[in-house]
Amino acid sequence: MENQKGHVLVLPYPAQGHINPLLQFAKRLASKGLRATLATTHYTIGSIKAERVHVEPISDGFDEGGYKQAPSTQAYVESFRRVGSKTLSELISKSYETEHPVNCIVYDSLLPWALDVAKTFGIYAAVLLTNSASVCSLFWYIHQGRLTSPLCPDALPIVLPGLPLLEFSDLPSFLAYPESQSAYLALIMEKFARLEENDWVFCNSFEELEAELVKALFGIWPLAMVGPLVPSAYVDRQIDGDTSYGGSLWNPTSDQCSRWLDKRPLGSVIYVSFGSMGNISSDQVEEIAFGLKATNKHFIWVLKDFEHKLKSPIQFLDSIQNRGLVVEWCDQLEVLAHRAVGCFVTHCGWNSTLEGLSLGMPMVGVPLWSDQATNAKFLEEKWRVGLRARKGEQGTVTREEVEMCVREVVEGERSEEFKKNALNWKDRAKRAVSKGGSSDKNLGEFVAKIREGG
Ligand code: UDP
Ligand code: UDP
User: Fold this and answer.
1) Residue 364, phi-psi category: left (phi > 0), alpha (psi -120 to 50), beta (remainder)
2) Dihedral over alpha carbons 290, 296, 302, 303 (to 10 degrees)
3) Mean pLDDT of the chain
4) Is the dihedral of CA 403, 409, 412, 413 positive or negative?
5) What is the mean pLDDT of the segment spanning 83-103?
6) Is the confidence at residue 240, as pLDDT, over 60?
7) Is 227 in the pocket of ligand 1 (CB under 6 A)?
8) Which of 351, 357, 371 is the pocket-test mutation for ligand 2 (most atoms within 8 Å of CB)?
9) Ligand 2 pocket check for 367: Cβ under 6 Å
10) If pLDDT is split at 50, 70 and 90, which confidence band does 241 have?
């Protein structure tokens, strides 16, 4: 179908929460007949499955082990900027010797230097923001000087156009605890300082989901929503529909999950996952474990390094018998799309939040860091698809709180309302990316421009 001009290079940051949406973006370009190449690091390239999307390696300077091989986040980020710029440039130069010269780079929020590469070649540049537009607007407000990081003590609660009132516990950690995120925060602020220099600013969200923000910033902030970047095969529960795409960095134990789920009644299982980063404390794991146990419900829990995170892992597994399954990694969408799953206990990473909404899942938010607290607030107060768990005095969510939230969402007074709202969001999400929907239109306009060449 690649019968027209235009070739887009899509550049993800090599972490799971970034590869997934950018690969999906590339796939949608390909399904609109555009040539799309995903350029990813040597360390991650072996994980990418893609049929119509071309895949090429670039280097971050740590070809053997990726960021884990780097002495620090700062060192990794600097190396990626230096070596990445060089290898990305080589890739573009090489394309000029073929019939498919690259004329646009779509790069991840965490790779702001790609803009300079695009400028050197005089080609289009587009950034794809992988957080919600509401969270991104906070960065933008910092850049505008309407908010400071670190926060002024008298800035709370935060009141800004298009956003609900934000208390300290609602804030992303780049605002609440900026010292813990300095390397990434610097990168993100670098990008926001130069947002206007991009030809497009895309966001993995959809207009209906963040309508107030879109309205408040209309005409001020040139943001094009193109999400949710969630494969539609799962949304339609045709999970055999399209397995030719994927970029899982770990091997899923999906067969085991599916077989286990096949034997459970409709909507009876709680799916529990805290994302790909593994940054959950042992104390928190202990509380989750006993909270889940106390619900008396079936559950699948994704937890890397389970044996070391829980004090008595064997006794715990014995005590829940076949009511719970703990796995290192699964195909999350396949599990969420399974008919037996009825509730998602999530850390509220932005991808997981969008996946839950896209699949119509009632949710319990247990945010850990980054933008998760803000997403959890929205889940409860704005989208009204579930509850967020509150931290206790020790700074962890207690087992009682876990049990209470799960019970309320699954069988409490408002459980039917949560279910209904979740299904409504599923519908709206699907409409946004279907032919003529808001996100599809934005994508279509981009594709038309790229096809003109230039
Ligand atoms: N599609 C579309 N706009 C979108 C996403 C998908 O028109 O934003 C169409 C696409 O062209 C194809 C169908 O929906 O005809 C299914 O898309 P595909 O499975 O290739 O991608 P996905 O929907 O999973 O992104
Ligand atoms: N994921 C998965 N299997 C798992 C856990 C997570 O496939 O066992 C995927 C999940 O579907 C999502 C991504 O990993 O697309 C995690 O991204 P998110 O933004 O939710 O969280 P992060 O890992 O960035 O904290």
Assistant:
1) beta
2) 20
3) 94
4) positive
5) 97
6) no
7) no
8) 351
9) no
10) very low
